[in-house]
């Protein structure tokens, strides 16, 4: 980050915390099995009406990981003037860059207000988009869930999808049985984006999260009440966690990691996955490299510790 870079200030109002992260994968069941082997509980598979399908990892702090793949290419609508296509974006991300983090999603209480706020901040906005689907709970009963998505984007980071998500039937979506994990995971503590120029995206993430940028070594962090979005240079990522980003990817911003908070590092039979899978250690965290988690690095940290 340039030393003289001007950092945007937050306007008055609450921050938008992390709702979830979208991770695109080639084989949905295989990716879900990988996460179960890591001690996470997964939901049953579900299908969207626009050509994609998902399996979720829900957390007690009301954040979640969305494993997503294409299940019906013919049902995918292409983007158009003023129209964003969630399915097409993730299809293209998987085809162009392979498995890994594709979209950062912040929590919304009012989709219309978010759209107006994004437009006022000079961010791109698109036609309102909403959908319904059924979700099968731990009891095997299918219930309706519905969402309003407010898409925006960062011109400096076309490979990073961004939207705000408003859930209309949260009582049908969040289930305690899905939020309990053998490894003790509590929730998403943050998302890390690799970018050669963190300052270039500062205004976008200040507007999206409503947070004041906090300088960190090698980048910026946007701290909300519900998780952080951190922009780091590839060099800083290598120095912190020993992960080298390929040259062709280091020049384009992309989602590199998900930080997961746990009360403590587990070493029970259910949590011994730290030893089962090759990992690095970086101070108070444990690392599962991208190659071991379908393209997304997992940074496991204890709750209450600040690692960034």
UniProtKB/TrEMBL annotation:
InterPro entries: Glyas_Bleomycin-R_OHBP_Dase (IPR029068), Glyoxalase-like_dom (IPR025870)
Pfam name, any one: Glyoxalase_3
Domain Glyoxalase-like, residue spans: 18-208
Gene3D superfamilies linked to this entry: 2,3-Dihydroxybiphenyl 1,2-Dioxygenase, domain 1
Superkingdom as given in the UniProt entry: Bacteria
Chain segments annotated as transmembrane: none
Database matches in PANTHER family: BLL2707 PROTEIN, GLYOXALASE-LIKE DOMAIN-CONTAINING PROTEIN
Name of the protein described by the UniProt record: Glyoxalase-like domain-containing protein
Protein's organism: Pseudoxanthobacter soli DSM 19599
């Amino acid at each position: 980050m340039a030393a003289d870079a001007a950092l945007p200030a937050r306007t008055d109002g609450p921050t938008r915390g992390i709702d979830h992260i979208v991770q695109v994968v080639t084989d949905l069941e295989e990716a879900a099995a990988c996460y179960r082997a890591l001690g996470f509980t997964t939901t049953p598979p579900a299908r969207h009406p626009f050509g994609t399908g998902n399996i979720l990892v829900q957390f007690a702090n009301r954040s979640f990981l969305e494993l997503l793949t294409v299940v019906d290419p013919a049902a995918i609508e292409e983007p158009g003037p003023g129209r964003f296509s969630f399915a097409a974006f993730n299809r293209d991300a998987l085809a162009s860059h392979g498995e890994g983090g594709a979209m950062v999603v912040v929590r919304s209480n009012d989709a219309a207000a978010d759209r107006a706020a994004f437009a006022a901040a000079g961010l791109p906005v698109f036609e309102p988009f909403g959908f319904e689907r059924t979700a099968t709970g731990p009891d095997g009963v299918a219930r309706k869930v519905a969402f309003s998505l407010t898409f925006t984007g960062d011109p400096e980071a076309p490979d990073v999808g961004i939207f705000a998500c408003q859930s209309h039937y949260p009582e049908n979506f969040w289930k305690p049985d899905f939020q309990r994990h053998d490894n003790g995971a509590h929730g998403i503590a943050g998302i890390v984006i690799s970018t050669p120029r963190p300052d270039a995206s500062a205004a976008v993430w200040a507007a999206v999260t409503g947070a004041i940028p906090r300088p960190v070594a090698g980048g910026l962090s946007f701290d909300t009440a519900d998780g952080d979005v951190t922009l780091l240079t590839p060099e800083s990522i290598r120095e912190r966690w020993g992960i080298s980003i390929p040259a062709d990817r280091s020049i384009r911003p992309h989602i590199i990691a998900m930080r997961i908070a746990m009360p403590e590092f587990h070493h029970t039979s259910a949590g011994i996955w730290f030893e089962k899978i090759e990992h690095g250690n970086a101070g108070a965290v444990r690392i599962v490299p991208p190659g071991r988690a379908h393209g997304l690095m997992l940074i496991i940290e204890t709750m209450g510790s600040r690692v960034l």
